[in-house]
Design goal:
CATH class of one domain: Mainly Alpha
Distance between the termini: 139 Å
CATH architecture of one domain: Alpha Horseshoe
CATH topology of one domain: Serine Threonine Protein Phosphatase 5, Tetratricopeptide repeat
Shape: globular
Length: about 775
Amino acid sequence: MQRRFTLCVITSLVVAILFSACSRDPNVRKQKYFQSGQRYFQSGKYREAAIEFTNALQIDPSYADAHYQLAQSYLKTQQFLRAIQELARTVELQPGNFNAQVDIANLMIAGRDFQHAQEQTTLLLQKWPNDPQSHVTLSSLLAAEGNFPGAVEEMQKALALDPTRWQSYLNLALLQVKNNQPDDAETSFKKALSINPNATDALLMLGSYYQSRGRFSEAEQQFQAAISSDPKNPGPCGFLARLYVAEGKPAEAENFLAQAKGRFPDNSDGYRMLGDFYFAKGDLPRATAEYGNLYSEHPRDLQVKKNYTQLLILEKRFDEARKLDDEILKSTPQDSDALIYRGQMQLRDGQVNDAIATLQTVVKNDPDSGPGHYHLGAAFQRSGDEQRAESEWREAIRLRPDLIEAQRALAGVAMRKNDMATLEQAATQIISQQPASPDGYALRAIAHINQRQFQPAEADIDKAIAVAPQSPVGYVELGNLRLVQKKYREAETAYQQGLDRNPNSTDALRGLMNTFLIQNQTDKAIAVANAQIAKSPQNSDFYDLLGTALFHNKKDLNAAEAAFAKSVELDKDNTNALIKLGQVQAANGKADQAIATYQQSVKDHPRQASFYILLGELYEFKRDWAKAQDAYQNALALKPSDPLASNNLANVLLQTGGNFDVALSLAQTARQGLPDSPNAADTLGWVYYKKGAYQSAISMFQEALKLSEKNTVSDDARLHYHLGLAYAKTDQPALARQQLERVLKINPNFSDAADVRKQLGQLKS
């Protein structure tokens, strides 16, 4: 018995030693991590898979298969820069890895790096000329470059090499659609289905083709077939719902999704479809209510929790949103979505610098995060840095062309720049992603209206109304179109229809008031504003519109001031109303009150350069040069190249005998930023004059006068005064006299009239 016991002990020890040796064997350990990563990848847990593949690579940095699988995980999570780095390392270790070479080419094509993509596809065709995928890849490159005939030809070569590839027939069909070969495309779609009758993608694409051709019943047939062929996949249900919307049947789409929701009790993509439908429609209250119910039913579904948090933010239910967001960050402190939500709420609370820091953390941790770049752009815009904002939005779209928010932001930039081609492009992208929303059609209508393309504008407006008949958006643009066409009665009706659908629509009220103001019917404009305020007494924008009409059209300064004050009382973040409140106070002879308004505005909005500029102008009016200089310097600290602040500070330096070299630099910045401003040209000319560069000064003063005439500005005595002084300094007495006499003719009470007379007395005959 004793010997048997000893033998058992020895055997156990040997087994333990063997297992211990295995656990320390790096090849065994890396393989264990690799296999774990594959299991995560196959179950759709791509971030977890990436962690395991990374663990394997820490043991063996030359593990090519792990590099490749890590690249695939990054592709699934849209971390494209990291993916291409891992693919490059894979090819370095395994030059014969064909799939990695193809993936690199496709990433270059997607990033529109056509030169390197061409080099890569050439390499594929040299090494693997008889592999269909080489020709498929070249076809993708040609299509991205807009060469659809060439792309079709290459796809046909791929099919000649392997006619059993039903996916290639799908690609061929899509290219034939682009190449204006609709009949051939239909044939190719059907060929794909003849090879694989239950291919969900083929059914959906053929259905989408029929939908694009207006063949709705055939499209529905294909979508229903896709639902039947893959009943556990919620994707086909989404296609059918979008078809109903395209047919102008939003209620049918809603009912279908409500019923479909029950088919997917354990599939997040399935039971979230109805809430996402409401969100896509712009119906935030119903989307939020639906997600509230989903959160109660599926409290452990992280995506539900995140989407619900975002909706609560949009609905301004910040306390609830903050609570959910803090819960997410407590468990995963670096979660990009949760950090984005935190940044949004920081921005809403006026913590602009904190929001920028939070969102920069997101893009640092995940450079491929399209939403991260979008929200960072929004934070930069809030800080007054439009250039960096636009740059972040463009990066967001490069990474995520389907990111609607970024497309909307760039659409806004395009409108501010009057770039209608870019606006139309952004709007078309929005429509392609959200055909059930009226916003894309409305934005494209704006582009058409501004280009006086009234027929396509009307078509887009009709579509906006059809997809969302209870939204004011389409009716507002209909009013805008009729206003440009000078059909005032029809414009009035359209704007009123918008207000009937949403009594809080600022755009509809603005349009209705403008219809009357254009016809010099100021009293009617004021009356409709007051009528709408009676219906929506808590709308800050309505008081802003009323104040603007009273200020600029009625010249009733006291009533305008009261309206702007009420607007600010209702919304202290209404910076537009704050600016006008100070302006009307100044115009009403209450400069000190206006200063107090802007001083408070600076405290409430310390990142808004415009308030510092307005404050500086008031100090200039009071000839308090030191405070004016301080205000302009604060503005430039926020926006270093702001042309107005630069121009005004240059003038203050000239008034106070400050550093003329600094004044010159500021004036040049102002001139560059305000090329059509007579004032900016005059400031630069006056700096030249003070520095003794009289010929340069004369050129600038002459340019200022030309701009003044071009802009139909009333004849400015100061411009003639400055030009006369410059002529006098260059021994051109006749021209000097002409300009100086012009000053007194324009304004006998000119502030420097005494000096004008003195200069005239000193001129040679």
